[in-house]
Amino acid sequence: MKEIKTMTPEDTDWPLLLRHINDPPKRLFRRGPWPPRFADGTVMNNETKFLCVVGARKHSVYGREACETLIAGLAGYNICIVSGLALGLDAVAHEAALSARIPTIAFPGSGLNPEVLYPPRNVRLAKRILDAGGTLLSEFENDMQATPWCFEQRNRLMAGISHATLVIEAKRPSGTLITSKYANQYNRDTFAVPGEIFSPLSAGPHKLIKDGAAIIRSSKDILHQLGIKVRDENPANQGGLFENTKNIRGETEEEKTLYKIILESGGKLHKDGLIRERSRIGPSNVSEILVTLSIMEMNGLVTEENGIIKIVRG
Predict the structure, then answer these.
(1) Residue 176 and residue 64: Cα distance in Å, rounded?
(2) Residue 125, domain member (yes or no)
(3) By residue range, what is the domain housing residue 245?
């Protein structure tokens, strides 16, 4: 891994938002560049928005899909994803950022030496973050092992360095909600993804929404809340993979419509979500949608795994 360096509040490149919290760290240890870099080598600037993404360790399929889809839709914007390298949705957030070529910062609940980096299962993920131009940050001594009190300490830094915190799934009480507590304490925005009313993992986000957190149902909601101008009201025309309509494949108009919906969702979408999105466009028939998807799969346009419909890159 890259060399560990030390940052202090006296440094000119000290994270700007950490200057405005009432309990800042006296120093930060880091691996990787500061500021982090985009996949094309571009360095982040003062206009970059930091979005802390947190959620349950034992998440649902819905939670993973929501996390991956929302972050995929942020590709190409001046955003950095912050999370805690933990098992569960923290790791999913980092993985999604890497897939979308978005810079990401990880705050492990330990020191930065590989021997103590927590959790051990995500040491390889940490290396991938560094290789992609991202950064690992910690206020703990480099050889300090994770202890229960470390996690609340690092959660405050995740919230403190970020313009907003997005909560995807969380029980009550949970460490995830501690991060949102600090976001409120620091007068930062809190976002929440609504979930199934019968799931205990929805209790946290629904409480936050009840208390005034912004409801997030799409990547566009995040961009609007962060004050970032959406380049095009049609995400399929926002550059990269979705640069223009020539990327929309299919033999019939219905196939093209379904293909476009999946593209706009980052290239994959749960079947139930696809049916819901299709119904918003206009009259639809579930049986016809399923038949169309079967034809698209036979023609090599999409593939299905555990209910997730994915684009087959051609």
Answers:
(1) 15
(2) yes
(3) 235-311
Which of these ranges, 39-48, 78-87, 99-108, has the smallest mean pLDDT?
39-48
H/E element holding 99? helix 89-99
Beta carbons of 38 and 144 less than 8 angstroms apart = no
Query: For residue 135, what are the β-bridge partners?
Result: 105
Nearest alpha-carbon partner for 239 in 131, 13, 78: 78
* 3-class secondary-structure state, position 304: strand
Taking only the tens place, the pLDDT of each residue in 86-126 is 999 999 999 999 999 999 999 999 999 999 999 999 999 99
Q: Which residues of 150-169 are buried (b: 16+ CB within 10 A; e: fewer)?
A: bbebbbbbbbbbbbbbbbbb
227 DSSP assignment: T
- Give the separation between CA 29 and CA 260, rounded to whole angstroms: 44
* SS3 at position 263: helix
Tokens 């994770």 map to which residue?
146
- Beta-bridged to residue 106, according to DSSP, are 83, 136
CATH number at 125 reads: 3.40.50.450
Q: Tell me if 230 is assigned to some domain.
A: no
C-alpha distances out from residue 57 to 84, 176, 231, Å: 11, 9, 34
CB of 208 within 8 A of CB of 167? Answer: yes
Tens of pLDDT along 257-276?
A: 999 888 877 788 888 888 88
pTM: 0.75
Residues 52 and 117 in one domain: yes
What are the start-end ranges of the H helices in 16-86? Answer: 61-72
Q: Between the CA atoms of 29, 126, 94 and 239, what dihedral angle is there, to the nearest 10 degrees?
A: 100
List the structure tokens of 302.
Answer: 């999409």
Q: How far apart are alpha carbons 223 and 79 in whole angstroms?
A: 9
